[in-house]
Design a protein that fits this description.
GO terms for molecular function: ATP binding; identical protein binding; non-membrane spanning protein tyrosine kinase activity. This protein has 25 helices and 25 strands. By secondary structure, the chain is α+β, with helices and mostly antiparallel strands. It folds into four domains: 75 residues, no CATH class; 214 residues, no CATH class; 205 residues, no CATH class; 260 residues, Rossmann fold. The chain starts with a helix and ends with a helix. The relative contact order is 0.11.
Length: 819
């Protein structure tokens, strides 16, 4: 079990030398992969487009309104510089901002010029421009060819595979389907005239009076994909932490990049200015509606006053300029202002309780509230609400910043509620005192005649409304002034501009580098897999690692039509290897062997490892050395020896063991001096029982009396048990290992037999050896392991005729025939 575990562990070891040898033999795969890889890299490099980088510099500072002071009624600040930079960066990369820019430029329309290897973005490089109708379904994805015919006409064409196509409304952002003409479609149109088809709603205008003829393509692309692509605009603070940011964008069309960057700045600047003016605009809107109502009220009071004067004929300067009337008018005006403030506070409190969006809160100054705490708190609340809305475009709702903003909003709301309570208490006190004064004056007025009282009442109402109208006009002028003085916090230092700078191409060498890496990786991977999965014995070195059994000899790879190579080519390297094995056997023979005879058993793990080949040639070298040698075929299951010696196998060991003939009847001459042969005979039904019989042992013992060497060709040890029975009669056992054929795990069987000493004088013969299969081990072992290899000049039988030599021999034979 220990030997088996040792073999199993060794088979799992990665052989680096074998790996390197396999790798060197895969040089052709490396060259193939290099050729294919470099060719493919060259092909891919033709598709690499030139790209350009465009950028602009923008300053974001706190450009406060020069008209804004602590006494100004309207407040329109929206945060400090740091917050503005962060907000601007977030907005530039937001989806909503990209949508606005894409919509304004109609970047969902793609202009295409067909090239040799790839299509080119032809935006602003065509003699025409396409204006899409906003609220209409446009065919999406299908390219339409436009062929400019002359200065007035062009032809649109397409090849539609069906009668329906996907469509998109780039205004409402709704998807749908449109009818299209299936098959090839062509139609002529004129420049500047609307095209109203079921699937296309555009107007195509010329970009110049003289137009260039040619053919281009255009299509309506994926809207959301376009928006998402431009969200990737690169933004850097230069230097970090400053108020200056750099917008940069990379693409294949310089004009498209320039337009997007510059339009992006304009759109953000416009939006930021609209937010700044939002309070002034809403205030002006409210005041305008109030002025209309006040004007109508003044007109009604004026008509009422004139009507009363015409009826009563009361024109008394003392009445008109009555001190009572002046005071009462002033008090009532003050009361109206107080009541407006109270109404504002009540509405503000209800608004804060019921709403969650506080960006639409009306400015307190509209009703004359100028308390710094109230005005500041409302302005801060609006600012935080605006900030929260802006951040929603780029952050998740559960982001920590929203919890912080909500906490600040709630804190400010509590402050405003306290301010409302205290301010209302103060206003109610002032209102109570003012009502008391008004009551006193009204009591004095009641002493006047009825007609005068009525006149004063109408006059007083007219004056109140006129004063209110004048105040609203003043506040509107103030709001207009603030709005006009508002400037954007975004200032473009350097706009993006196409100054003719050349573009760049992605490093084409990277494709060649990848090709080289893949080219080397392919043979390395193949060699690694082959080495890792290789479970065969390839060299004597492998045997030394896998088994304690020694290697007696190495036999080279044979290139001969029969197994009788020693007889046919006695001076070949293989013949010398068998002579070396013969010499090595002298060191392991039992010197006390009976009858001074030597019995050698040749076996293997499985069929095909060369035991019959070795048995024949080993017997031949012993016979050629003058020793009386007998070759016995004991593989009763698959006999082979008779084919090589061209002898009938009708009489042999199996006949003798069943007592059909005598011993002398089965011994035949091999046709080689001193070599006899005993064939296995016909295949019996019970070969194992015959081999295990006493008659088989007696047969071998009888052979020993008449021969110096007996070579036993046995069945494979790894398949049947016959060889173990035969091994009892052998002085030495040769176990065949064939290069690249014998599996490593097969050695478990022989190792176990060796450990238990079940086989006497066991040695390995490494067969079919080739330097091409040794993975770097070479001929260091030589043919005839332990005996040494012959040098040049001794193996003339191994020299093969070259191609020219064969031609010379043919020519000589022809001349000999003629002579």
């Amino acid at each position: 079990m220990e030997e088996e575990n040792e073999v199993n562990s060794l088979t799992g070891i990665f052989d680096i030398r074998q790996f390197l040898s396999k790798l060197l033999r895969l040089w052709w795969l490396l060259l193939l992969c290099l050729g294919v890889g470099i060719g493919y890299a060259y092909y891919k490099n033709q598709f690499i487009q030139t790209y350009y980088d465009m950028e602009s510099l923008i300053s974001i500072k706190d450009n406060s309104n020069p008209l804004f002071t602590s006494n100004t009624s309207l407040t329109f600040n929206w945060g400090g510089t740091t917050d503005k930079v962060t907000t601007a960066i977030t907005q530039f990369k937001s989806r909503s901002h990209s949508e606005k820019v894409v919509d304004e430029l109609q970047f969902y329309i793609n202009y295409i010029k067909e090239g040799k290897y790839y299509n080119v973005d032809a935006y602003k490089q065509t003699p025409f421009f396409i204006y899409a109708v906003e609220d209409a379904l446009q065919i999406k994805g299908n390219s339409i060819r436009i062929n400019v015919l002359n200065d007035k006409e062009f032809e649109l064409s397409a090849d539609f595979s069906s009668n329906k196509a996907g469509a998109f409304n780039y205004f409402t952002k709704e998807t749908g389907q449109v009818d299209i003409p299936q098959g090839e479609w062509k139609q002529k149109f004129e420049f500047g005239k609307p095209i109203d088809l079921p699937f296309l709603h555009v107007t195509i205008e010329k970009t110049s009076s003289t137009i260039q003829k040619g053919t281009w393509l255009f299509n309506f692309g994926d809207y959301w994909g376009t928006v998402s692509r431009y969200k990737g605009i690169s933004i850097l603070q230069k230097p970090t932490g400053s108020s200056i940011i750099q917008l940069s964008l990379r693409g294949s069309n310089k004009d498209r990049l320039v337009d997007y960057i510059n339009s992006s700045s304009v759109v953000l600047e416009k939006g930021e200015l609209e937010r700044k003016n939002k309070f002034a605009v809403s205030t002006i809107k409210y005041i305008d509606s109030s002025l209309i109502a006040q004007a109508e009220a003044i007109k009604a009071s004026e008509d009422e006053l004139k009507d009363f004067q015409s009826k009563s004929q009361l024109i008394d300067a003392t009445v008109q300029n009555s001190d009572f009337n002046t005071k009462l008018t002033d008090f009532e005006f003050q009361r109206t202002n107080l009541q407006n403030k109270l109404d504002y506070y009540n509405n503000l409190r209800n608004y804060l309780r019921d709403k969650t969006d506080y960006t639409a809160i009306q400015a307190p100054t509209v009703v004359g509230i100028t308390e710094g705490s109230v005005v500041g708190s409302v302005a801060r609340l609006i600012q935080l609400s605006e900030e929260r809305k802006r951040r929603q475009f780029a952050m998740r709702e559960d982001a920590p910043i929203f919890r912080e903003i909500d906490r600040d909003i709630n804190a400010i709301k509590e402050v405003i509620f306290e301010n409302i309570s205290s301010s209302k208490a103060q206003l109610n006190g002032e209102l109570k005192q003012l009502n008391s004064e008004i009551y006193k004056i009204e009591a004095q007025i009641k002493t006047l005649p009825k007609e005068q009282q009525e006149y004063l009442k109408i006059q007083r109402q007219f004056d109140l409304r006129q004063n209110a109208y004048n105040i609203f006009q003043a506040r509107r002028a103030e709001a207009e002034l603030v709005k006009a003085a508002n400037v954007s916090d975004i200032y473009v230092i350097d706009a993006a501009k196409n100054i003719g700078r050349g573009g760049q191409r992605k490093d084409s060498n990277i494709n060649y580098l990848i090709a080289l890496m893949v080219a080397f990786a392919a043979p390395i991977s193949v060699a690694f897999v082959l080495t890792f999965l290789d479970n065969y014995v390839h060299s004597p070195k492998d045997l030394e690692k896998l088994s304690p059994v020694s290697v007696l000899g190495v036999v080279g790879k044979m290139d001969h039509p029969t197994n009788l190579i020693v007889r046919d080519k006695p001076k070949s390297t293989i013949a010398e290897s068998f002579r070396g094995i013969r010499s090595s056997l002298h060191f392991i023979y039992d010197q006390e062997s009976q009858y001074n005879s030597r019995t050698i058993m040749v076996t293997s793990s499985v069929s095909g490892e060369g035991k019959t080949f070795t048995s024949i040639n080993l017997a031949t070298v012993f016979a050629l050395s003058g020793k009386r040698t007998l070759l016995v075929g004991l593989d009763l299951r698959k006999p082979k020896i008779f084919d090589d010696f061209e002898i009938d196998n009708d009489l042999g060991v199996s006949n003798y063991l069943v007592n059909d003939c005598s011993l002398n009847d089965i011994i035949r001459s091999a046709g080689i001096e001193n070599l006899d042969i005993v064939l296995s005979g016909p295949v019996p039904p019970n070969p194992s029982e015959l081999i295990m019989s006493k008659r088989a042992g007696d047969m071998i013992e009888e052979f020993k009396k008449n021969y110096d060497y007996i070579i036993l060709d046995t069945p494979p040890l790894g398949l049947v048990a016959d060889a173990l029975e035969i091994a009892k009669h052998a002085d030495a056992s040769l176990y065949m290992i064939r290069q690249g054929y014998t599996k490593k795990e097969m050695l478990n069987v022989v190792n176990e037999k060796y450990k238990r000493e079940e086989i006497k004088n066991l040695s390995f013969i490494f067969n079919h050896f080739s330097d091409k299969g040794t993975y770097g081990y070479g001929y260091g072992y030589g043919y005839g392991y332990g005996y040494g290899a012959y040098g040049n000049g001794y193996h003339e039988n191994d020299v093969k005729d070259g191609f020219l030599m064969k031609i010379k021999k043919v020519v000589r034979s022809i001349f000999k025939l003629k002579s």
